[in-house]
Amino acid sequence: MYYNDQTxxxxxxxxxxxxxxKADLFNQTLHYGSGVFEGIRSYKTAEDSVHIFKAEEHYERxxxxxxxxxxxxxxxxxxxxxxxYDLLKKNKLSDAYIRPLIYLGANMSLTASKEVHLLITAxxxxxxxxxxxxxxxxSSYQRPNPKSVPVDAKVTGHYANSILASTEARSKGxxxxxxxxxxxxxxxxxxxxxxxxKDGVLYTPPLGNILPGITRNTVMDLAGELExxxxxRFFTLDDLQDIDGAFFxxxxxxxxxxxxxxxxxxRKNWEDTKGYDLSLAYRNKVKNNIGHDFLLV
Length: 297
Hints:
The protein is α+β, with helices and mostly antiparallel strands. The protein contains six helices and 16 strands.
């Protein structure tokens, strides 16, 4: 699914076939989850070129995550962007999902490893949560407490929490989970930020207990352009009673409409909500926006 015999990846300054790449089985990331990553998408534009959406923002966050985990990375944002465009060209990819991963060397101690590796790979991948509307449930798991781990960093080990929440939801017949934070406020999905609409106003949790999503920021900017009222604030499950609609946002998921919470449908049809309008606006932006990180392939 993720590679074939012809797939080329970037590993520690070299271009290798994915089938021939190797990693030390005693690496600290594998054993303890101390590593950082990004999820990035590229799109074929109307001009028949390839655009990596928000490439610089993603790599800025990757380096920020590495710093939070005391991982030293010698590549600059610009170098990472250029490597990624070369990666797409070598694999003849346009609409692609890109996965940079910073992982650590062999180290069984509980201190930051000085041996650092960089992997960047890409493959064709449909939207993470599919194209149909989602039925979600409130998870019995909470998002990690920000005083225990840096929740604003995209750390590999954090996603054990996401796997537990998603697996629980699907075992109970739902498509995805919605998690609360350690104080009982609504936080986010296992791999996406959360928005809801009520009485014409959009709401989303503030930063502090959630991952600061790049797609989240893009959708908030689009809401401003469309003059949709939007508030960032803490809210509880009681605030989600009788809402008009809701959706998840994330690079892998894009804008994913939600149909129901805990088996209760929302008041409006998805096509009548501001979330639906934003999903169309987002799709148009990623396909047609040409920014400062736009390069031809």
